[in-house]
Write a structure and sequence with these properties.
Length: 210
């Protein structure tokens, strides 16, 4: 996976595959320590609308609860199987260690859930939050921190390998002011949460997990 990092940061994971962006807005990628790590394409309003439309049509909520539980378990299995790639991504881009956490309690909402990662969010928290939402029948649109985008690439591949319905999970790269704001303001969103410590979470008025 890691040999394709530069290419993957120029796409979004939507509808079960890596897709060309609808927005051409670019930004520099820097590690938590400020060192330059390349460039990424930022998701815009059209990318957000595409991801949420696919999430709404994915049929996850209609799956049998036992099937969703199996899916969530497979996501975590695939995540752990990518441990080496995850650790290499952390070395490349910085970030928290691969803390293992149990799936989080689902949110009592209807509609896709936006998850906004922070640099401080442990990779295990991201994986647990996504698995918990899928188990509850809630599609996820994940936007990792622009200073910690690499571990989310491994998570996207884990969700796809687990056999999630196309659209049940989307990964949009970008910053909070552009991609994050477009995501949390979309009317088709059921809820939005911030993963990890986020001093500016109040900017969007969203709940914090972790």
């Amino acid at each position: 996976m890691l040999e394709n990092l530069a290419e993957m940061l120029m796409t979004h994971h939507v509808g079960g595959s890596w897709r060309a962006p609808l927005s051409q807005r670019m930004r520099d990628v820097r590690g938590p320590d400020g060192r330059p790590l390349g460039r990424m394409v930022e998701g815009g309003a059209a990318d957000v609308a595409r991801a949420i439309a696919m999430a709404a049509a994915c049929g996850l909520e209609g799956m049998d609860p036992a099937q969703r539980a199996d899916l969530a378990a497979r996501v975590l299995e695939e995540w752990h199987a990518r441990r080496a790639a995850l650790e290499a991504a952390l070395r490349h881009g910085g970030g928290s260690d691969a803390t293992d956490l149990p799936p989080l309690a689902p949110l009592a909402v209807s509609g896709p859930v936006a998850m906004l990662g922070t640099v401080a969010a442990a990779p295990g928290l991201m994986a647990a939050a996504v698995a918990g939402a899928l188990r509850a029948g809630q599609p996820v649109v994940l936007k990792p921190a622009p200073r910690g985008p690499f571990t989310a690439l491994a998570l996207a591949e884990a969700v796809a390998a687990a056999g999630a319905p196309p659209g049940a999970f989307a990964l949009l790269q970008g910053g909070g002011a552009h991609t994050g704001r477009a995501l949390v303001s979309h009317p088709g969103l059921g809820a939005a949460v911030v993963l990890g410590k986020a001093p500016r979470a109040g900017l969007f008025g969203v709940r914090r997990l972790g």
